[in-house]
Design goal:
Layout lengths: L4 H26 L5 H18 L4 H7 L1 H10 L9
Helix pairs in contact: 1-2, 1-4, 2-4
Length: about 80
């Protein structure tokens, strides 16, 4: 398989997004003083970062990454079970 510049750039963006998502999830788990408002702001910041890398793909973030992040808030007792 030939690695085109476009494919290399796409892979670079995906690695950056993965790093940001992993960092955000770790932050949501580890910040002892985290409030619901702060947690939601971190999730929104990660979404904006994803959209800066992949314009128009915010819905994909909402389907793939946001549920994982909200689950952390639920596990910590910051969010009710039925909230999205």
């Amino acid at each position: 398989m030939q690695w085109t510049p476009e494919l290399l750039e796409e892979n670079r963006k995906l690695r950056r997004l993965r790093l940001m998502v992993d960092f955000t999830i770790q932050l949501l788990y580890q910040d002892q003083d985290l409030t619901l408002s702060q947690g939601l702001m971190h999730i929104q910041a990660a979404r904006k970062f994803a959209e800066s890398l992949f314009p128009g793909k915010g819905e994909v973030f909402d389907l793939i990454y946001k549920p994982r992040m909200l689950r952390v808030l639920r596990e910590r007792g910051l969010l009710k079970n039925n909230s999205n």
